[in-house]
Design goal:
The complex is a heterodimer of chains A (495) and B (105). Chain A has 495 residues and is mostly helical. Chain A has a domain of 210 residues. Chain A contains 20 helices and two strands. Chain A has a two-stranded antiparallel sheet with strand order 1-2. The relative contact order of chain A is 0.10. By secondary structure, chain B is an all-alpha fold. Chain B has a single domain, classed as Helix Hairpins, CATH 1.10.287. Helix content of chain B is 73%, strand content 0%. Classes of the chains: A mainly alpha (495), B mainly alpha (105). At the A-B interface, helix 6 and helix 7 of A face helix 1, helix 2 and helix 3 of B. Chain B: It comes from Pelovirga terrestris. Chain B: It is found in: Cell membrane. Chain B: It is a multi-pass membrane protein. Chain B: It holds the Pfam family Oxidored_q2.
């Protein structure tokens, strides 16, 4: 029985199930909510089963359709794929619960309800497919699927600003992926393969390969909104409905970053990455300071959270300069940890912003005055989620930053220390600004009743984000299965 | 200069022309066309790479990739045109409005 359970091809179901359910939800819009909820319940089970089957057994590699590898497509089952699938399943489940309340059955805007579920399930399935893809061309196709469903989800509101944000995101997304695809073409021209593992063995430092690297990195940087290519992100993430903003910030931005992480540690090590790594680190540092400063200046909660995402993406890009030979494992682990914890915290924050918008009629910070009273639970959820954005212990954000600081000191790159510290201070400032409004003692007459699914599910993510540092050992052990890095995570300094 | 190299160079040229137009043209339809030209450039590079071998048929893998790419680019073009038409109906305007920040409510 156990054998049968463990040897199921769970990872394939993680892609097939949401894609099938998306088609079903599109064909039967009346049942879309229940199809969506059933899928959201099944996917975490599949993800858990998939992780168990990989960690407990040494099952054969999964190849789609049973074709042998050079021709067929082998699914990646390494630690990075597993933890990203798990985070996606968790965040996706909570977003689905929240969306049940956010898009009520008897809505004036029936179209929104009708199209949200198929598009969201498409997005979820494409993200899962991306995380288990092991070759450059499949990564391109899945990245395009992710972008296409995100564009449609951003346009869901139907207003002219939402349309403009969606269209701009579409152009940016296409520009990024075409640049990436051209890089893939150049690599295929030299080595006649697009398999990441095979390329990593064969690649050498030629000029053409460096051009390919530049094109691919540029495309992925554009898609994951690193400063100064972040200009599309605040509009896109703000114009979308709250559950969509949560998914975009938690998962979609990470999708492009995961590809870059795979390329950087598995394909590019043979190339001369010194300058590119430090350039990415510099842009990441500017993103941290600039994003935090912009967040501090915003008058609208959703824009504030979106700029905070810009800053957090900056931290993710510190991985590349910090990944020197002795701190390879440290930087990689810090990046993966930050991705996981940021996904939980940021999606909870966007959902709270949506609930506040729903109750107060606007997400202007001034409308938050007095929100600490009747809808106090929202302020609590927001604060708990924000601990990981600021990097307070024992959140996962704290440990990720700790690992980064350790790596920066060991490799003698002390200038990242003030950047990380100032980012932390600025984050504390913009979060405190929100809370300052929420706890103003203002008598508010009446609030509409909030459905419980819009209050309590985000709290789960907040608590996980807060306590992630304490339970981080197991996820990191899983993430390190088959990881391209070796060595210790906390490196001792020698004076 | 061999023929495949000529085609690859042409592809890169198309990519650059499209990129230029995407960045400076304001009309949305022109931007959509520009993206399509960029895509064609990338596909031409792929075809040129596949045609480098000695056999007359060429590399089927690059042709399959280009077919997939064409499908993806077709979907994106369809969505982009649908969004543009919707935007034109709403705002009577075919460019990105410059005063987007003004009325967010």
């Amino acid at each position: 029985m156990t054998e049968l359970f463990l040897h199921q091809q769970w990872l394939i179901w993680l892609t097939l199930l949401p894609l099938g359910a998306a088609v079903a939800a599109f064909l039967a819009p009346q049942q879309a909510r229940w199809i969506g909820l059933a899928t959201a319940l099944l996917l975490p089970v599949c993800a858990l089963a998939g992780i168990l089957s990989v960690t407990l057994t040494h099952a054969d590699p999964i190849t789609a359709g049973g074709w042998p590898t050079p021709l067929g497509i082998e699914l990646r089952r390494d630690g990075l794929a597993l933890v990203m699938l798990a985070v996606t399943a968790l965040v996706g489940f909570i977003i689905s619960c929240y969306a049940l309340g956010y898009f009520p059955v008897h809505d004036r805007h029936y179209d929104k309800v009708r199209y949200f579920w198929p598009l969201w399930l498409f997005l979820w399935g494409s993200c899962n497919a991306l995380f288990v893809s092991g070759d450059l061309f499949n990564l391109y196709v899945t990245l395009e699927l992710v972008t296409l469903s995100s564009v449609a989800l951003i346009a869901l509101e139907g207003g002219k600003q939402a349309l403009a944000a969606a269209l701009r995101y579409l152009f940016i997304g296409l520009l990024g992926s075409l640049s990436y695809l051209l890089g893939v073409g150049l690599l295929y021209g030299s080595y006649a393969t697009v398999d990441i593992a095979l390329l990593g063995e064969m690649i050498s430092a030629t000029r053409l390969n460096h051009a390919a690297m530049a094109l691919m990195v540029a495309g992925l940087v554009l898609k994951s909104a690193l400063f100064p290519l972040h200009f599309w992100l605040p509009q896109a993430h703000t114009m979308a409905p709250a559950p969509v903003s949560a998914a975009l910030s938690a998962l979609v931005v990470k999708a492009a970053y995961v590809i870059l992480l795979r390329l950087w540690f598995e394909v590019f090590p043979a190339l001369d990455t010194f300058a590119v790594g430090h350039l990415l680190g510099l842009l990441g540092s500017i993103a941290i300071v600039w994003g935090s400063l912009m967040a501090l200046r915003q008058e609208r909660l959703k824009l504030l959270i979106a700029y905070s995402t810009v800053a957090q993406i900056g931290y993710l890009y510190l991985v590349f300069p910090l990944a020197q030979p002795e701190t390879m494992a440290a930087a990689w682990t810090g990046g993966v940890l930050l991705m996981m914890t940021h996904a939980c915290g940021k999606s909870a924050m966007f959902m709270v912003a949506g609930t506040i918008h729903h109750t107060a009629g606007s997400d202007r910070l001034s409308r938050l005055a007095g929100a600490g009273g009747p809808v106090g639970v929202l302020a609590v959820v927001f604060t708990l989620a924000a601990t990981t954005i600021i990097g307070l212990p024992p959140s996962g954000g704290f440990f990720a930053k700790w690992i980064f600081i350790n790596a920066a000191l060991v490799t003698g790159q002390w200038w990242y220390l003030p950047i990380i510290l100032s980012g932390t201070l600025l984050a504390a400032a913009y979060i405190a600004r929100v809370l300052g409004w929420a706890f103003l003692d203002v008598k508010r007459s009446s609030y509409p009743v909030i459905p419980w699914v819009m209050k309590w599910p985000p709290l789960v993510l907040s608590v996980i984000a807060l306590l992630f540092g304490l339970i981080a050992y197991e996820p990191i052990q899983i993430a390190l299965i088959g990881a391209p890095v070796h060595g210790s995570i906390m490196v001792e300094m020698t004076p | 200069m061999t023929t495949p190299l000529l085609y690859a160079g042409g592809g890169i040229l198309l990519f650059s022309i499209g990129l230029h137009a995407l960045l400076i043209r304001r009309h949305l339809l022109r931007k959509i066309l520009a993206i399509n030209i960029m895509g064609s450039g990338v596909f031409m590079v792929f075809i040129a790479i596949g045609a480098r071998g000695t056999d007359a048929v060429g590399d089927p893998v690059t042709q399959v990739m280009v077919l997939t790419g064409i499908v993806v680019s077709l979907c994106f073009t369809a969505v982009a045109i649908a969004l543009t038409i919707r935007m034109h109906n709403l705002t009577n305007c075919t460019t990105f409005a410059t005063d987007e920040e003004s009325s967010l409510d």
